From TrEMBL:
It comes from the Bacteria. This is TM2 domain-containing protein. Signal peptide: none annotated. The lineage of its organism: Bacteria, Bacillati, Bacillota, Negativicutes, Veillonellales. Keywords: Membrane, Transmembrane, Transmembrane helix.
Amino acid sequence: MAQLLRRRIYNYTVLTLDKEGSIPDFEIFSAAAIRVRDGKEVATYLCPDFPTDAKKRTEEVNRLRTFIGNDMVITCDISGMTPVMESLYMNSIEAFFTNATLDLLTVEEEVEKSVPDPKPFHERMSHFRRVVEPLERARGMREIYEEDAKALFGYQEGYPYWLCSLPYEEERYMAKRLPSKRKKFWKALLCWMVGCHYFYLGHPRRNILYLLTLGGCFLWMLSDLYRLPVLLDVENGRIAAEVYKNAPKVNRPSIIRWAPYTGEDSADEGGRRGLMSGLMHFFR
């Protein structure tokens, strides 16, 4: 079973094979694939009658390989599909099937354990299993994955990318605690209009200085409008690091010590802070 990536994938290819038998004796009746970019369908591949003639099969496998490219491949039967694709590539075009793969059933199982009411997901999956047409099955798989990925990892939007590198237990801990803490751009913008965006971003002292100087005679105010997305990312990164400190730690089998950046300086990285660093720390 493939390892479930702890993030939402936006660019991938959905592949479905209508086959019978297993390695080494198998027969492919049809194949369909959908190329997805930014979560949307951009191209399709369909072979309703997979050729049995060696020459025509080689041409068709080359066409399929060109369509898939180096994409992550999402399928519903990873244990059966991967060996078939490896054999198909090797016997038809003498190439290796090296694409990373993701099993949609694995994602679905985790969603059903994570959401309060899994009934809609059960019904949707039951409807999907009744679809016969290959291309429609692939489209159904894309829709299911997009909904599942949003349900599992939608909270990561606006937070640092290192969240997707966490082990399962730590990532699920963050998923429960981060959604309500995320600072939103529209709220920060409204606060900026009334001069209290630093209060919203967790820097009360800096906001007091901001108000006392009238937004730096409006220069500070204008620069903050330009910097607001960056300020928001920095604050959300700080929030994620603070929440992560209380996450249940998992032993990682690595000789490299891994930890997300928390915004704190290590003792061997620069000695004493200068005057400007001290002032910025005070007005945080």
